[in-house]
Design a protein that fits this description.
The structure holds two protein chains of two kinds. Chain A is an alpha/beta fold. Chain A has one domain: P-loop containing nucleotide triphosphate hydrolases (Rossmann fold, 3-Layer(aba) Sandwich). Chain A has ten helices and twelve strands. In chain A, the strands form two sheets. In chain A, strands 6-7-8-3-9-10-12-11 form an eight-stranded mixed sheet, sandwiched between helices. In chain A, β1 and β2 form a beta hairpin. In chain A, α3 runs parallel beside α5, α4 packs across α5 and α5 runs parallel beside α6. The longest helix of chain A has 18 residues. By secondary structure, chain B is α+β, with helices and mostly antiparallel strands. Chain B folds into two domains: 87 residues, no CATH class; 214 residues, MetI-like fold (Orthogonal Bundle), CATH 1.10.3720.10. In chain B, a hairpin with a 4-residue loop joins β2 and β3. Chain B is elongated. Chain B starts with a helix and ends in a 5-residue tail after the last helix. The mean pLDDT of chain B is 83. Classes of the chains: A alpha/beta, B alpha+beta.
């Protein structure tokens, strides 16, 4: 299958902190890729790097982002790619919709390459139907919709231009479980009908398994494991992934105590010199505290741990 | 527009009424040529400081007349401006009375006036020292006093939005430069700035030039503080998530500033606009009061009031000279109520 997006050796940050370090992955056409990890691992930053909406003091330091064989890091006018070829949906739809304009107005604004107002409006009604919203939503303001409807409206805005790639930044975190399921099913349908590629960021590894083909596990700005969703879920390699999966409530019987991962993600300002996970890892050996493990490749899996070979990150 | 009015009517009666009063005031200013019973510069030398004329339906014999009429009045004591009603002489009021020829709305000439008397005089709000009808002069004065607010506000808000918006959105060096500029403008005490700006220009200008000059002076004073406030609001709004979302949609910077950020300042700026219109009316009054504004014989509410200042005799003997003050007050209070109501109504969250 054709590659839509390829990140090569990406470093993001500034002089003081490095937020993303040596990020490499690719997204094929029609593929759903999930990025999972704890808060502060750089998941959202990865998405914001791809559409170059980073906070002011943070820059892409190194590397290439190839989007349809075009290097995004070198493009000056991202406006022609954002919205049109890459759509994005956010975590909290209520704060990402402008409170002053109707939904119809906002979706219309997102439409590019369509001059006629009438056709624009028709297109909006079509897209509303596609994301499962009634037509009268066109005339409503964001605060008049429920969270799930707002998220659907956001999705409508993101896919109205038929983008190649959809970035979803925890789109279900702010919703309750049943609404979230509706949104997930909608996304799955859209992937099938539009042949859309999706990068899906979430905390929830079982949700990631449900929706995606490939899962990337991130920790402290590194990709520490990558593989197909079944592989990751059933045979996790990295100790961190194992622990993450051990925390899932569905793995436990009633009244059993759910395990947690002791400790916290280390602050980006003072990372341990070795493996960033070494202070929480059960399989720690001497080398872990001294050197940073490099990426070890098994067929199409990647893992960053000394358990599987002595490759040191340069 | 219709929807906004409907909501205004439903939610805030006071501002709805204010809206119609303002419309009424503006219409009468526009149609001053048609409504006024005399030309604005016509002096009735025999009637200085004449009190408002009463319009009667009943005469002194308690007899009813369908056509309203006024009694003729006569100056009995020129030193104290005492008038006496001539009870024998009834002057009925007619529509479309013949009078002096004058141009209407700058389009055509006519010698007919909407209402008036064939003999005697109708001074609805009395006359000033030179015997000019105050009602007529208020109508003509409204043209200047009411339009100065609207035009002045549009100029200064245009500047304020442009400079505040750009400064807040881009930040950094641009922000620094523009805000220092604003501070220079704000540094001057506004009244002295107004006077010195006025002093720069020659005194012998035509009244239209003076009018333009006043508008420009007033808006040059007004925009700085506004730009500063808008910059502050833009600074906070641009960090909102929906602005990030708009950027993610690939909208241009210009569009983001003027379609997404500026409208979100409206909850403040609409009130600020309606509250600053009175400032312009008063500013013009202040200039006229000092003789630097609109020059006689052209009336403005400000220069009509300026006659009263420092003249206690006029104030105590002829309080009707203060009617322009009442109209300034009415306009200001209506604009304030309207602004208040509009702010509530225009915020979609309040529907």
């Amino acid at each position: 299958m054709k590659k839509i997006l390829e990140l090569k050796n990406i470093y993001v940050g500034n002089e003081e902190i490095k937020i993303l370090k040596n990020i490499n992955f690719e997204v094929k056409k029609g593929e759903v890729l999930s990025i999972v990890g704890e808060s502060g691992c750089g998941k959202s930053m990865t998405l914001r790097t791809i559409i170059k909406l980073l906070p002011k003091n943070i820059k892409i330091l190194k590397g290439k982002i190839l989007f349809n064989e075009l290097d995004i890091t070198e493009i000056q006018d991202m406006e022609r790619i954002r919205g049109k070829e890459i759509g994005i949906i956010f975590q909290e739809p209520s704060s990402y919709l402008n409170p002053l304009f109707t939904i119809g107005n906002q979706i219309e604004e997102a439409i590019k390459n369509e001059k006629s107002k009438k056709l624009c409006k028709e297109k909006v009604f079509k897209i509303l139907q596609e994301v499962g919203l009634p037509e009268n939503v066109y005339y409503l303001y964001p605060h008049q919709l429920s969270g799930g409807m707002q998220q659907r409206a956001m999705i409508a805005m993101a896919i109205v231009n038929n983008p190649f790639l959809l970035l979803a930044d925890e789109p279900t975190t702010a919703l309750d479980v049943t609404t979230a399921l509706g949104i997930i099913n909608l996304l799955k349908n859209l992937v099938a009908t539009h042949n859309l590629s999706v990068i899906f960021v979430t905390h929830d590894i079982s949700l990631a398994r449900f929706i995606s083909d490939t899962i990337i596990v991130m920790y402290a700005g590194f990709i520490i494991e990558k593989g197909t969703s079944e592989e990751i879920y059933n045979q996790p390699l990295h100790p961190y992934t194992k622990k993450l999966i051990n925390c899932l409530p569905e793995k436990y019987r009633k009244r059993e105590r759910i395990l947690t991962i002791e400790g916290e993600v280390p602050s980006l300002k003072n990372l341990p010199s070795g493996c960033p996970f070494s202070n929480r890892c059960d399989f720690k050996i001497d080398i872990c505290e001294k050197y940073l493990p490099g990426e070890i490749k098994f067929e199409n899996r990647i893992v960053r741990c000394f358990k599987y070979g002595n490759i040191v990150e340069s | 527009m219709k929807i906004i009015l409907k909501r205004l009517k439903k939610r805030n009666k006071l501002s709805y009424i204010s809206f119609w009063i303002i419309i009424f005031l503006y219409l009468s200013a526009l149609l001053a040529d048609l409504i006024s019973p005399y030309p604005y510069n016509k002096q009735f030398r025999d009637y200085p400081l004449c009190p408002p004329t009463r319009i009667h339906f009943f005469d002194y014999n308690r007899k009813f007349h369908l056509r309203p009429f006024v009694y003729e009045i006569r100056l009995v004591n020129p030193a104290l401006n005492k008038y006496e009603i001539v009870k024998e002489k009834k002057c009925p009021i007619y529509f479309l009375v013949k009078g002096e020829r004058r141009k209407i709305l700058g389009l055509f000439y006519s010698d007919r006036y909407l209402f008036g008397t064939k003999e005697g005089k109708v001074f609805l709000f009395g006359t000033d020292i030179h015997g000019r009808d105050i009602f007529t002069r208020i109508l003509y004065g409204a043209r200047i006093s009411l339009s100065i607010g609207i035009i002045g506000v549009s100029i200064s808000f245009f500047l304020g939005f442009l400079i505040g918006g750009i400064s807040g959105y881009f930040g950094g060096k641009i922000d620094n430069f523009l805000m220092r500029l604003v501070e220079i403008f704000m540094m001057f005490p506004s009244f002295y700035l107004m006077l010195s700006l006025r002093a720069v220009f020659p005194l012998n200008l035509s009244s239209f030039q003076i009018y333009l000059l006043i508008v420009i002076i007033l808006s040059l004073i007004g925009w700085a503080g506004l730009a500063r406030i808008i910059r502050g609001m833009v600074l906070s709004i641009k960090e909102e998530e929906y602005i990030l979302a708009a950027r993610a949609l690939g909208l241009s910077t210009f569009r983001i500033i003027f379609k997404h950020i500026i409208p979100n300042t409206f909850s403040y700026t609409i009130t600020a606009i309606t509250l600053s219109i009175p400032g312009y009316i008063l500013g013009e009054s202040a200039l006229s009061l000092l003789g630097l504004g609109i020059q006689e014989p052209y009336p403005s509410w400000g220069n009509m009031l300026s006659v009263c200042v420092g003249n206690l005799r006029v104030l105590s003997n002829a309080p009707w000279m203060l009617t322009p003050g009442f109209f300034i007050f009415l306009t200001i209070i209506c604009f304030n109520f309207l602004g208040d109501g509009l702010r509530d109504v225009l915020d979609p969250k309040n529907w």
